[in-house]
Amino acid sequence: MTQAATAPGPRGNVLLMPTRNIRKKTHEYLLRLEKEYGEISKIKFGPFTVIYLANPDYIEHVLLNRDIYTKVQEGGMLRILLGNGLLTSEGDFWLKQRRLIQPVFHKQRLERFIQKISESTDEMLGDWEKKNGETVDVYNEMNRVTLDIVGKTLFSVNVKSEFDKVNSALTKIMTAIRNRSRFMRFPLWVPLPSHLRIEHNRKVLDETISEIINQRKGETGKFDDLLTMLMEVEDADTRERMTDKQLRDEVLTIFIAGHETTANSLAFTLYLLSKNAEAKKKMQQEIDAVIGTGEITFEKLHRLEYTTMVIKESMRLYPPAWMIPREAAKDDVIGGYQIRKGDKVLASPYAMQRSPRYWSNPDAFMPERFTAENMKDMPRYAYFPFGGGARMCVGNNFAMMEMQIVLAKICAQFDFVLPENFELELLPLITLRPKEGVPVKLVKR
Ligand code: HEM
């Protein structure tokens, strides 16, 4: 048997290389790794060995073999935030929960959400009417509307008044998690200031979710939504219902995974449209022609072809889930290179979707890349903003539909202008965010 090789990569621990400035700009560093070492590289990152993949076939191998490549276990960033919900759980337990939750998001069942998504967006646009000519941070606005949408569509609750609390707790947790030392990671029960901050803000989120669940207890029959389903379902073998803790983890997961990513993507799309007048005009023409002043329907959304390409191109340049980490549960070989049990394996939609080996003029905003003709030879995993394999985003169709509706409504009624000196800076936390938000002047059309 031929011996597998060790993947190439920088010598020493990259966190000790100040010139690399990688803590704040990991997304850019990954692109440099590909340039310097090619399609696979090995990095010593604090106490971890990380294998970074920049080849669509290698990424496919990892995403499709979930018996070898599992979600990062204890201490993983998402697990600290979300507990053991659908995004973080593993094995048979995950599969059982996935089978339970997935039908709510089936394409055929999404149509019934159109009206509620439209209503939430209309409410926001009603507020915007009063702000005509003012500059608002659309990043904040998009977070507000997407939280409202998840609350109303999936849990039949109005969480608008909770927005500031939830949003600030989430940001503080994500920042504290990122700032946890990568060399000396103490368990969370050690009362370090950063741990106390995580704990305090996690409690804030917990309380919000518990309130929603408690309020629903006793009135489940009144609602036909995801929350009722989660509360009433019984395990096929034990006939037991979900514990309160499990219910809390699932509900929090859907709330967090379902609003922030979509909001970031909407904000990035509005930013890109403000910078690209031609694309904005073309999209507005399509929306005016297909939807006009009428109701939004499933059939009309299918006809928003250019708008859909704009959304896809926005998620290529600024994928909210900018990195997808896994952990090798067994030894493996990828592309002739050795992967060892315990190695962290990293795929990055951000870096892969800007790789000059797959995308011409990769930093340019060109929605036409996404015509069927232009994409026909593109490897499947050169573009994967929703991940792939069995763990692919359960809400991907929901998110696409939501983004179409929100954007169609905004573009039909408003133009938006960026301040002249505005430079977009990225903040790569668990999700990719615009660091200083996206301030735009709203101009009624
Ligand atoms: C633009 C919006 C969104 C993006 C870019 C996005 C991206 C992703 C990605 C990349 C994954 C896979 C992570 C991995 O493999 O480690 C994922 C998983 C997931 N997403 Fe999304 N997502 C979005 C919207 C949503 C929405 C709207 C919901 C729910 C309402 C949602 C719920 C979930 C859940 C529950 C998982 C875990 C699925 C599992 O492991 O079985 N996401 N998402």
Number of alpha- plus pi-helical segments: 16
Strand share of the residues? 5-15%
**What's the domain count?**
1
Bound small molecules, by name, code or SMILES, are:
protoporphyrin IX containing FE
Distance from N terminus to C terminus (CA atoms, Å) equals 68 Å
Amount of helix: 40-55%
Can you tell me about this structure?
This protein has 445 residues and is α+β, with helices and mostly antiparallel strands. The chain has one domain: Orthogonal Bundle (Cytochrome p450). It is built from 16 helices and twelve strands. The protein has helices at residues 26-37, 56-64, 77-82, 91-101, 114-130, 138-155, 163-179, 193-216, 226-232, 244-275, 277-290, 298-302, 305-317, 349-352, 372-375, 396-413, and strands spanning 40-45, 48-53, 69-70, 135-137, 324-328, 332-334, 337-339, 344-347, 414-417, 426-428, 432-434, 439-444. The strands form four sheets. The chain has a five-stranded mixed β-sheet with strand order 1-2-8-5-3, with helices on both faces. A three-stranded antiparallel β-sheet has the order 4-12-9. Bound molecules: protoporphyrin IX containing FE. Protoporphyrin IX containing FE (HEM) binds at residues 86-87, 98, 150, 253-254, 257-258, 261-262, 265, 320-321, 324, 385-387, 391, 393-395, 398-399. Protoporphyrin IX containing FE binds next to helix 10 and helix 16.
